[in-house]
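Researcher: I need the complex structure. Ligand is MRU. Inputs:
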Amino acid sequence: MKQITLDYQPIEWLGDRVKFLDQTRLPDDEMYIETKDYLEIVAAIKELKVRGAPLIGVAGAYGMALASLHIYVKGRAELLRRLKDVADNIGNARPTARNLMWAVERMLRVAVDGKTIENIRQALVAEATAIHEQEAGATYKMAENGAEFVNSGMNILTHCNTGPLAATGLGTALGVIINASRQGKKIHVYADETRPLLQGARLTAWELNKVGVPATLITDSTAGYLMQQGKVDAVLVGADRISANGDTANKIGTYTLAVLARENSVPFYVVAPSSTFDLSIADGSQITIELRNPNEVTRFGGISIAPEGTDALSPAFDITPAKYITAFVTERGIIRQPLTENLLTML
Ligand code: MRU
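Model: Output:
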């Protein structure tokens, strides 16, 4: 498939430093940050300046490459020891997305094979760049594979942000949508605003506007009403971690959508690269759900929206049981029900 040229890049490697788009400033400011300090990458991941499961994997890999280049060490053994700590630090910045630990584990395996400090540095830069290219390439394959589920005239509902900002390349669920639109299919998107941090309103609406796909922003709680009215033909979402039986962690509210979709006979597709699957865990109960600062619920844009001292709870993700998922779209192909058997065969 022809690459789509965008006038923004969520992350870039500039030889000895990383340049990333600060997503917390969107849609008002398109502000890029350049850094040689891996700790700034860790902070950016925690603060959601860089976010979305595949993108934090790529950022984590570049963080390891930065650390290898810029941490002063006396010898190979010391470098490997320091890199192990760096990997733990980066890998634990956000606990739910599999892609982050997947990327740093891959980087560590490469580091161990390096015979000298210089070998290790070069190999880590090459590996991080390869992870970036592979993850971007996977989005194009997912977009092609998912095309069969998107027909002209469809209204598609999506949640959170799954575009190029979240995954490089074309994105995951949004990549399927963008590709279908490029194929000339007339589609319209309902974008959930995605409380509490409004990735749908701030980022999905911004990206769909950039690529010219017609979209309507809705509050999260409008989704059920629209489905009941027959106004949603399919739900497409991304994923942060998928266990061996197909249970799927994704942005909080995804489970609600999946149940509503089943109730209203709307197909529910999850679009995710193989780096998001975690076959080492049997089911979704073993996925750690990140708890965010309650301030993200009680305050908005620096303004308090609840009485002082209000208790709040902010899980960033929820688990959708595999039974609600019509199919997975991966770069290797489509995985249909029964998901558990078919997933193990494909991956
Ligand atoms: O907290 P975020 O903004 O990183 O959450 C992102 C999502 O939940 C996406 O749906 C997910 O990462 C998969 S698509 C890239």
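Model: Summary of the prediction. The radius of gyration is 20 Å.
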